[in-house]
Specification:
Layout (H helix, E strand, L loop, with lengths): L11 E7 L3 H12 L4 E5 L3 H4 L8 E5 H9 L3 H4 L4 E2 L2 E6 L6 E3 L9 E5 H13 L4 E5 L3 E7 L2 E6 L4 E9 L6 H5 L4 E17 L6 E7 L2 E8 L7 E10 H9 L2 H12 L6 E3 L4 E10 L3 E2 L2 E3 L5 E2 L7 H21 L7 H29 L4 H16 L1 H12 L12
Parallel strand pairs: 1-2, 1-11, 2-8, 5-13, 11-19
Antiparallel strand pairs: 3-7, 4-7, 5-6, 9-10, 10-11, 12-15, 12-16, 12-17, 13-14, 14-15, 17-20, 18-19
Helix pairs in contact: 1-5, 1-9, 9-10, 11-12
Keywords: FAD, Flavoprotein, Membrane, Monooxygenase, Oxidoreductase, Transmembrane, Transmembrane helix
Pfam family, one: FAD_binding_3
Protein name: 2-octaprenyl-6-methoxyphenol hydroxylase
């Protein structure tokens, strides 16, 4: 439901979720499925977020994240909108010795690529139909109070909401996380991601390409053909911050030429299919993700290089874990803000998050070392992965999000 339909706005609910983006709204829906009620607060207007052309980005949804969407009833709304990733080709500058990650037929795809707009439409439509969600849009929290009895949030329009637990899903610049004093391990990569969509002459065959250059990775991610039957892929091209201004200033024709040069003709002739966007790349990891009646999830808790496409998926693992911990505790009669439950959530997520982010950061640094010797060593290692099934299985399980201890919502 939307804010105009909410009566008794001060009614106490189980959760107050600050941020109604992909992670925050998925949490609200997953919680609602097990009877956990929530207030969701978002400063944006949903109509703006789903407007045609407002956001040309796409996200890789891992197998585990797709299981979550299926288990909370979103799969039908998303059916036919995602492009399967049937294989991933990894190469060091298109030199010999690439790795091909292709699961067995019975294992299904390595994930699915969705336009962010389609994900938002599905989430927002489901939220409007869910009585356990009170959705407050075009407003923000101007006061957040937490104590032993509960949580109280005052909105910019004067309304006061109450709950047992506050969840910060506000993204990388989370004011709630900063207000709570959670220390961040963080550093700049001195890189910028250039993001857009491409039309291309040859079909992609549902293959994602990860091409590593010393200045940064260059990823081509398969999308469904458009309504006119044109082949499409999403592009995430990482460039050094010192070169970013020049790339941003390029006319479209020059930009396309630079992209084509790095693609080595694998998809034939190309042209732009979406607006060009860019954003700086940073690493951050909150040392704590819980406090008194507070949990921090998604990009508010962790942000990484997009090299492995795991940022959103890591946030969705937060969702599945938090809902499982809260629902089990509430079945035992515990309050959703109980310190024991939050301690269990933090312990479960801290190891998994650290492992995924460490691997991602390590890959970023390994493939960013320039020079022929470094390239030869990388290709030697890639050849070993290509030949050794157990190593290949490890990396495919990571890509599918099926490693480690998974919450039930992320299991098939």
């Amino acid at each position: 439901m939307n804010d105009s339909n909410i009566s008794a706005a001060a009614e106490r609910r189980d959760l107050i979720i600050l941020g109604g983006g992909l992670v925050g709204m998925t949490l609200a829906l997953a919680a609602a499925r097990v009877g956990i009620t929530s207030h969701v607060i978002d400063r944006a207007d949903p109509a703006d977020l789903v407007a045609e052309g407002a956001d040309g980005r796409a996200s890789a949804i891992s197998t585990a994240s797709w299981n979550l969407f299926t288990n909370i009833g979103l799969a039908d709304r998303l059916d036919g909108l995602g492009c399967p990733i049937d294989s991933i080709a990894v190469t060091d500058g298109m030199k010999p010795g690439r790795i091909d990650f292709t699961p067995k037929a019975e294992e299904g795809s390595l994930g699915r690529m969705f336009a962010n707009r389609d994900l938002r439409i599905a989430l927002f439509d489901a939220a409007r139909d869910e009585p356990n969600i009170a959705w407050h849009v075009r407003t923000e929290a101007i006061r957040r109070d937490r104590d032993g009895h509960g949580v109280e949030v005052e909105l910019a329009d004067g309304r006061v909401l109450r709950a047992s637990l506050l969840v910060a899903a506000e993204g990388r610049q989370s004011p709630t996380r900063d207000e709570a004093g959670f220390a961040l391990a963080k550093w700049e990569y001195d890189h910028r991601a250039m993001v857009t969509g491409l039309f291309h002459e040859k079909p992609h065959g549902n293959t994602a390409w990860e091409i590593f250059y010393p200045e940064g990775p260059f990823a081509l991610l398969p999308l469904l053909d458009d309504a006119q039957g044109r082949h499409r892929s999403a592009l995430v091209w990482t460039v050094g911050e010192k070169d970013a201004g020049g790339v941003i200033a390029m006319p479209d024709a020059m930009f396309v030429n630079e992209v084509a040069e790095r693609m080595h003709g694998v998809l034939g002739t190309i042209s732009l299919s979406a607006p060009r966007m860019s954003y700086p790349l940073r690493f951050h990891h909150a040392g704590k993700v819980t406090g008194e009646r507070l949990a921090v999830i998604g990009d508010a808790a962790h942000g990484m290089h997009p090299i492995a496409g795991q940022g959103l998926n890591l946030g969705l693992r937060d969702v599945g874990t938090l809902v499982e911990v809260l629902s089990e505790g509430m079945r035992l009669g515990l309050d959703p803000g109980d310190a024991q439950l939050l301690a269990r959530y933090e312990k479960w997520r801290s190891l998994d998050t650290f492992m995924v982010m460490s691997v991602t950061d390590g890959l970023t640094r390994l493939f960013g070392v320039p020079g022929r010797t470094a390239s030869a060593v990388r290709r030697l290692g890639m050849g070993a992965v290509q030949r050794i099934p157990t190593l290949k299985r490890f990396f495919m399980d990571e890509a599918r999000g099926m490693s480690g201890k998974l919450p039930e919502l992320l299991q098939a």
